[in-house]
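--- STAGE predict ---
source: upstream dedup step, 1 unique chain passed
mode: sequence only
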Amino acid sequence: MAPIDGTFDYDLAVIGGGSGGLACAKEAVNHGAKVAVLDYVTPSPLGTKWGLGGTCVNVGCIPKKLMHQAALLGESIHEAVSYGWEVPSPKDIKINWSSLTEAVQNHIKSVNWVTRVDLRDKKIEYINGLGEFKDAHTIVATMKNGSKKELTAKNVVIAVGGRPHYPDIPGAMEYCISSDDIFSLAYPPGKTLVVGAGYIGLECAGFLNSLGYSATVLVRSVPLRGFDQQMAHLVTAEMEERGVRFHHKCVPLSVEKLESGQLKARWQNTDTGEQCEDVFDTVLMATGRYALTKALNLPAAGVVTENGKISAPTEQTNVGHIFAVGDVLEGRPELTPVAIHAGRLLARRLFAAGVQHMDYDNVATTVFTPLEYGCVGLSEETAIARLGEDAVEVYHAYYKPTEFFIPQRNIRNCYLKAVAERASPQRVLGLHFVGPVAGEVIQGFAVAIKCGLTMEQLMNTVGIHPTVAEEFTRLNITKRSGKDPNPASCCS
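--- STAGE serialize ---
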């Protein structure tokens, strides 16, 4: 029970040892707070578990980017032949799955270790237990051995993140994997069905296909829902041209394990009612994520949730001293850098008289599909919905990456656009780029968007040649004009 005299064990207790929670905890300690971090990973249905650091480090951004890089390197080996490299038997080159997963997991474990050492050095108490509220100031941690540890805190930050959702169909929990499992999978995935076409599903299907494992994607509604749909279709078009199969308007019905050990998946087209089935080695569920709020016993603290998430526009919940950051927040981008920045700013407001709040607008992101998609700001659809079609001008262009010429790589889907206000000075509302190293391209432009970038400023910026990023500075054709957006030449 929270002490009546107002003294607490800690100034701040953070429930969740992921990126947002750790950033908040470390910033709070920098300003003199006494802090505890509670973190516990419930194993996935397959039994996969991991160390301190949260989704991004263990089963998200980091292993995803490493496997994406492995896929790009494999493609580069084949392209090297066109550049004159003498590669013995290029057709025989293949990935060693166990070597790849071992390398990825070794890196993750090193990050886990550094994270624990960092907490110890900063004198943040790390409690490897599943935290829940006893009352608004008291938290009970259930340890691995089943014992209980109780602590009190003046302030509490909820940063428990989320986990993959499994559809309610026969065989889903018993036989399927998710992004929680793929990066440490003990066997090569083989022929894989990916259920879901959000960014996680497309990224996994993309690197699996590029690594040599056949990939099929079931798309329930649209690919990359919430992203600019023209760009999303360019991403999937590139994936299809590389061999990924897509079944549109389809939902899974069941997954059955055969005597061979393979999985028979059945699905249905929601438009036609037609049912189909096929046999796969692996079925990966990527049908969304849910916030881990149920295990927190939030009613005991009086915290209100909305659809399983916490509504807290300024990270402060309806209970004044309880806050939330990261993926548990309703209507906020589920991105690691967002959680980190919000956590740091929150700690400064709590312990250093800070006044700055997190700006959730114009957050840049990248989808690491075989041809990457980076964006910042509004999609074309959102801009038109907010301002009206007559008030929006879209500048666009196809382009030819110099690196693609010699190996004669497909350039049909290399495309970018700027969504701007039509009225002068044509403030840029959104930038979208499909092509190589999209994340590196879009990051710098995100700063410009924050500073109120206009089309005149963009057009008057001299590009670095030859790069793909310079294509933004060359934009001059609008969709409204009807002119051909394909480039005539690369240097004039």
